[in-house]
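Hi D.,

Good news: the full-assembly prediction came through. Inputs first.
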Amino acid sequence: MYETSYSRAKDAADAAKQMKAADDGAYLSGGMTLLPTMKQRLAAPSDLIDLTHIKDMDAINVTRKDVTIGAAATHGSVATHAKLMKVCPSLCALASHIGDPHVRNRGTIGGSIANNDPAADYPSAMLALDATIVTNKRKVKADRFFTGMFETSLKEGEFVKAVTFTAPKRGAYAKFPNPASRYAMAGVYVADHGKGAVRVGVTGASQGGVYRAKDMEKALANDFSADAIADCKVDTDDMLEDIHATAPYRANLVKVMAKKAVNKAAE
Amino acid sequence: MGLEGIGARVLRKEDKRFLTGAGRYTDDHKVAGMHYAAFVRSPHAHAKIKKINIKAASAMPGVAGIFNGKELTGDGIGNIICGWMVHSKDGSPMNMGAWSALATEYVRYVGDAVAIVIAETLEQARAAAEAVDVDYKVLKAVVSVSDAIGDKAPQIHPEAKNNIIYDWEIGDEAATDAAFANAANIVEMDVRNNRLAPNPMEPRSALAQYDAAEDHFTLHTTSQNPHVARLVLSAFYQVAPENKLRVIAPDVGGGFGAKIFIYPEEIVCLWAAKKARVAAVKWTADRSEAFVTDAHGRDHVSTAKMAFDANNRITGFKVDTLANLGAYMSLFSSSVPTYLYATLLSGQYNIPNIHANVRAIYTNTVPVDAYRGAGRPEASYLIERMLTASARQLGVDPAELRRTNFVQEFPHQTPVIMCYDAGDFGVSLDAAMAASDYANFEKRRKKSEKNGMLRGIGMSCYIEACGIAPSAAVGSLGAGVGLWESAEVRVNPVGTVEVLTGSHSHGQGHETTFAQLITDRFGLPKENIQIVHGDTDKVQFGMGTYGSRSGAVGMSAIEKALDKVETKAKKIAAHMLEASEGDIEIKDGEVMVKGTDKKLLWHEICLGAYTAHNLPEGMEPGLKEGAFYDPANFTFPAGCYICEVEVDPQTGTTKIEQFVAADDFGKIINPMIVEGQVHGGLTQGIGQAMMENAVYDDDGQLLSASYMDYCMPRADDVPSFQVSATETLSPSNPLGIKGCGEAGAIGAPPAVINAITDAIGHENLTMPASPQNVWTALNMAEAAE
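Then the structure:
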């Protein structure tokens, strides 16, 4: 690791101020991707500005079906939050399968969505839940937040403060883990918001990063069953290819995971 | 046997320090004035070094020296050797290219070391290493054996035309061809044995100390054989004469073969410590460095065919193998695809005619050498895949085809050098079939089908050769070393015992198992016994630990030394007790005259040996004996593994439903430790079969260079193993031990693949059977239909 300065931001304004003052600063929100990258000397920010100690940044609030999750909430706290479990158990289940216990106790939802790793789990949930991403400057819908692999609409100095969404009627997440890293090689979040509004978020599979499978959404809106998506096509041209999965295999996994998620949600 | 003697499940003495974090590994050792090394490594798989500019790097803080390959060879440091000479079938010696510990003119794989940087801190060394500016002319690289032998392939070493190191054969080709001409049935198949990165838990490390006043070196290093390391460092690399070089392999966290070899880093750190005039140089690989510098394993591409007569008896076996040895010939690389592989191609079967041709090939990849099993897993995979595929093609049960062809009488001379001395292959097969409820498999298959799953069962009847010996025989086959072992038993005046052994424990539990021999012999508690190993200043010489040899060879040396100690102790006792030597019995820490109540305590005899007040006429004082043991033959562990799997056709995911191991390791000293070795070996074998794969792209970049992409087996990937053992004693050593360290890794891959191919209904499956490969195999079959 190259030399770096570390400081804890007191509040949102302080964080933005510190970032402005830094040569080449980076926000830290758990650091489950950034720190290993720095250890391998592949990233060298001059300053690390830790957001996780800002007051109430890790709060989770559930009022009836309205959910707000602070950006510094760890995967572990999302996985085990009693009120959240009642209204949106599928998100708790998703969080409970991220990484290992160490990662779940350090990694945060804000860090995950801001990094937008194409194999991360949360971004698919944000799309399917039609979440709003609250930053220190504005509110932006998930649909406009994720813009490509490792890319978001966050501007310089901007960071995620919280995510908000209304819990769906039913939902589920199914992922096929990469055998080596156990990141999602295809992860599908299906959320039925009622009245024919179904959203499907797909992670781990596409060259464009997380995306909504709109033909599946349409099919499920009419008939919320695994059979309904049997004829949906997953375009192999869009799929990622690596030593673990060819494009046709990944496309197959997207379909299989989507069916699995629908079955789970319909239970 | 007693509570702690031979056959007892004694808990491991060494685990207290290992489990409490008190182990002392090479990287834990620190000395005053210690500097750190970082290596400048090639980012290219094949390139000419045009210029190395160290100006900026040399001026960086803390830098004590930056040295390159020309300086190394200029100081007379010798090229890295290969310790086993193999001749091609035309009689010519192998075409070995030069390997300098730091590259001089060319780099030949990604990770090839170009320069060493020594600095006061690790961070300084790494920063300066990044600042060393190497100007390369990038050359075309080749990574696969089939590409490397082509006429258009880049020439990696001038010595090896078409990158062929040797073109070797074993067996009678004409007789084998005749068997095929007369065969009732012939079965053919292509078999690929995937490439593996060894991944011991502790990465390699070296701490090289130089004492200028004494002109003496001390090397702490992660070695499975510190004496061999000292010999080679001294005799071939001219680092220092043996009396001026002490090599210590302290606690070592796993080896699996990768820590047999003497690598560039150890050589360079020793040389550079003296050259930079620093007290010591420490280097420890990080995991990324380990992936591109530890010798890889396997990587064979073979075609094979088997001839059968009308009664399904095997009449001939013909094999053609291309073995990838990487960019340079590592220490024992030449022997792995020849004498450790092709000599086992008879398997457990009576095959009258065998011919194998092996070409060893240079490629622009990490050097390939012995890895748990070394050659024997490749042989076992080939034969056992062949037997199962043949059974399916001939329409007979795989178990019956094996039984029809088992070697039944011993000794059995195979057509490929090995002479099997003992075994009972049918017993292991019966045991494994009974334990796996093989008879009712079809019922289970139907049940899986109802759930939309594919179920399969597969077996492998492996045989391997351990305790490579005798020395004269392996010498005649080209080995540069003898493969005996030594031991010294020192009985202290108070009756406690130190055993100095040339074997080296890097996880095997020698400190417990070896002590059980002494406990068994004299009835001493294990707390009174110390096993000393891994230090050339303490142990006179030894050959180290690999090839499952420490039991069969290392413990045999201890037994021989114990015989001498017992004889002398009895002589002393007879004299002190005024009895006849033949009437003396040593038991439970007491020395008694049989049939009387006359006795002395063990420590009274020991003290008597050292006070020397009352010894027999002419006897030297003391109670300390040494022995060298050179076995009469290899040992032949064998067994039967049965694996049952369920495949999800939607995703290609395979779950192992049960895995049964029925082994014959000869005499077992500590069943708990043996079972642990089997569990570990099976897990590594399952890892090779289903998960692990070292993959290069066409430019020679290792794509699977971290745990993000290299899939190691984890606890939830393997089932609860059902293991059992029979004991057909080896006639080749006094204890009847055969060895158990590698069996799992040798026998498991074919059992797993035979099970999965049974589930998917055809043979066209590439190892590792990852979900992707299984799904592709299933869908290929569907497309073909």
